[in-house]
Every structure is written in C-alpha cells, then in structure tokens.
Design a protein that fits this description.
Radius of gyration: 22 Å
Shape: globular
Largest sheet: 8 strands, mixed
Low-confidence stretches: 246-250
Structural class: alpha/beta
Number of helices: 10
Mean pLDDT: 94
Strand order of the largest sheet: 8-11-12-7-13-14-15-16
Order of helices and strands: EHEHEHEHEHEHEHHEEEEEEEEEHH
Length: 403
C-alpha cells in the first residue's frame, strides 16, 4: 500500500470504525494489540474502536476484554455481529468456524478481517469468496489476515522485486520451522485435530510461506509436488477444557493426531520460476524460523524472520570484485511503515505487523480501495494447500531393490 500523507487527517477528529472480534487467545491478543495501537502511531482516516470481543467462556472473555481494552464482551458471535457499534468483524477463531462467521457477517453488512488460513477446505473458501464478492457490490470489504506481508523488510522486498531489481525470477526457497511439537509428550490440542484445524503444519505455517512466495514475486503458484508426514500419531489427552477437544477434568489416555507434522513440496510459478517449501513444527531448536530467498537474473534477496528488521540484498550487476550480499537495516523513514515509528536503527518486532495490518485495513476502507490481501488471495492459498495434500496422498512409492 502507498504511504499515506500523515498530515491530511489532522484537521478534524476522524470518524469511528467499530471493531468486533471473535476469539481471544493468541491471535486475539495479537489483533487486539494492532487495533489498540494503530491510531496512536499513524494518523488514520478512521479511529478503530474496540467495541466488543466474543468467546464462549463468559469469565475468560470478560477477562480478555479487560486485559486488552475491549468495551464489551459477548458469548455468541451472532450477537456480536448484530451490534450497531460493530462495523468490522475480526475473526480469530479456529478454521472450522471461519466460513460460517464470515459469511454471516458479510451478509449483515459488516466488513470482515479473517485470520489465515481462510478456511479448512477449498469449498468453504470458495463460499467465503463468493460472499465477499456479493458484499463488495454493496460497499463491503473482506480481508485475509496474512500479517507477515506487513513486516517492513518483506514489504520492501516486494518493492525491489516489482521495480525489477532482481530481473527475471528463477528460484524461490521458503522454509518455516518450529519445534513446539518435538516432544511426543506434548498434549493433543485443537491444532492437531483435522476437524478443527483443517491441516497441521501445512495450514498453520505453509499458508504463510505460500502467500509470501506469491506476494513477493507477484505470481501465483500453478503446480506443486509434495510429501507430508505425521511423526507422532498419538498424543496425551489433556485434562480440562483448554484443549478444545471436548475433554473434561477426567480426560486422560491418548488420542489420534489427524493432521500433518511436516510438509515438503516443490512448485512452479506462472512465469516458470521454480519454488521449494519446507514447513514443520518438529525442527528441534527452531522457534519461529521463517526464511526466504529469491534468486533472479540480476540479483537475490534473503530474509530471516528471526532477524526481522534486516533484508539481505545482492546486486549481481555490480563488479564481481566488490559484489556480495549486503545487509539492509530496514528502519529508515523511506522504508514501508517506518515513517511513523522510531529514529533509524531502532528495531520493530512481531507485534508491529498487526499494527500495520490494522493501519492498512482502515486506510483501504476509508479510501474505498480493494482489500489486500483479499478473500480471493486467501482462496488461492487454500487451493495450493489442497493441491499439496492431493499430491502427497498420491506420491509414487518405490520398492527397495533386494541386496
């Protein structure tokens, strides 16, 4: 998104954009931070107002409302959608409820921001995208929450690619490695239940790197070939309702893991450039290692989320005697989003991506601009994820040669 003139909204108090959020756990906290902070950093054309937050557990959602600054709490998302002080519904729930909530909110005349992956199936994502298209004809907007697009270094990388600094693209490599499931004794949660989560590392982490590959290159993936694996197929059932699997205080024993632990796949972009992807939640020692590299005829870019404020850039047109990867510290006012933050060299963090997301959503609504990333963008990612699962299910198995 183009940088907005930070003075043009200072002549009068901006109108309010009432936010209603469904879900209050990890993503709910992150989105709350974004909505709460954006108007204090950027001069926005509308002021986000935290109208109401929703969750099924009355005590827990009221505690979350107090902790994160929401004016009211609801225990039924239908009641939240019906509120007159809510103009945008932010969906931060597990994937099995995205489609029902999003379609109902759009049909009620609300704007929608829905966390990735857009849905658990292509059919659900298609229904959501169709609802978004109908809503757009009435002035509604539907956004998919791919927050890593809002990392300043990655937004800057997109500019460099779009400006032709890499020339014709040839390769993109992307990995997203975590280790929180490495221990076989880690308990069974909703993220390991296909009915709730849709898929495992593929949807949780793969959705991010697939979207980033397409965002950074400006091209869709048109073919994939894949392998997936579940390394630990049974895990302990936790006591209490926290797991979201219907267990009670007496829960025990083990239950099946019905999603993938890891996925490895290759792909081809529309231009013919090749891509490779690896995602896992079982890479010991890797906490949140999202790494990308793009190679083109004129240069290369590399990024590591664990060094979030840095971009590595190689200009292959320079003389070989001095050419090489250079470290670009993405903290200058000329870099995306940085005009409103701290002096150069003062780093930002993970939470700032949600502040930038809130800013972009508000500015798009005020300008009447198309939502980016849209539900159609989320659907494209969902189709890639489905193709990966289809390929993995039908891969060729070789019989070992007898020795």
């Amino acid at each position: 998104m183009a940088q907005r003139d930070q003075t043009q909204w200072r002549t009068a108090a901006p109108p309010t954009l009432g936010i209603g959020m469904v879900g209050y756990a990890f993503m709910g906290a992150a989105h709350s931070q974004g909505w709460r902070t954006a108007g204090h950093v950027f001069d926005l054309p509308m002021r986000p107002a935290l109208a109401a937050i929703c969750g099924r557990d009355r005590a827990a959602v009221e505690a979350a409302a107090g902790r994160h600054g929401w004016a009211a709490a609801e225990t039924d998302w239908r009641a939240l959608i019906a509120r007159d002080d809510v103009q945008l519904v932010d969906i931060c729930t597990p994937g099995d409820s995205h489609a029902e909530i999003a379609v109902a909110a759009l049909e009620a005349g609300k704007h929608v921001l829905c966390e990735k992956p857009l849905a658990n199936t292509v059919a659900e994502a298609e229904a959501m995208t169709a609802a978004a298209e109908r809503a757009a004809a009435r002035g509604g907007a539907a956004f998919t929450g791919f927050n890593y697009r809002r990392v300043p270094a990655l937004a800057h990388a997109r500019r460099l690619v779009a400006d032709g600094r890499l020339g014709t693209l040839r390769h993109i490599r992307a990995v997203y490695l975590q280790d929180w499931l490495t221990d076989p004794a880690s308990p069974l949660t909703w993220r390991l239940d296909r009915a709730r989560a849709g898929s495992g590392a593929l949807g949780d982490l793969g959705a991010h790197v697939v979207d980033l590959a397409q965002f950074l290159t400006g091209e869709p993936l048109v073919a994939v070939s894949a392998l997936t694996e579940t390394f630990v197929r049974e895990r302990p059932r936790p006591a209490g309702p926290a797991a979201g699997l219907g267990g009670g205080a007496a829960a025990g024993g083990t239950g099946p893991v019905t999603v993938d632990d890891a996925a490895l796949f290759t792909g081809r972009l529309a231009s013919g450039a090749l891509a490779s992807f690896e995602v896992t939640r079982m890479a010991a020692g890797r906490k949140n290692a999202l790494r990308l590299e793009i190679n083109g005829e004129r240069g290369s870019l590399a990024f590591d989320l664990e060094r979030l404020n840095e971009l590595s850039f190689h200009d292959h047109t320079e003389p070989a005697a001095t050419a090489g990867f250079r470290r670009v510290l993405v903290t200058e006012p000329e870099h995306p989003y940085l005009e409103a933050w701290w002096p150069p060299g003062h780093a930002l963090g993970y939470e700032h991506t949600f502040v930038h997301q809130a800013r972009d959503v508000v500015c798009a609504l005020a300008d009447g601009a198309p939502p980016v990333p849209s539900f159609a963008d989320g659907l494209q990612v969902q189709r890639v994820l489905a193709a990966v699962e289809e390929s993995a299910a039908h891969h060729c198995v070789l019989t070992p040669v007898p020795r």
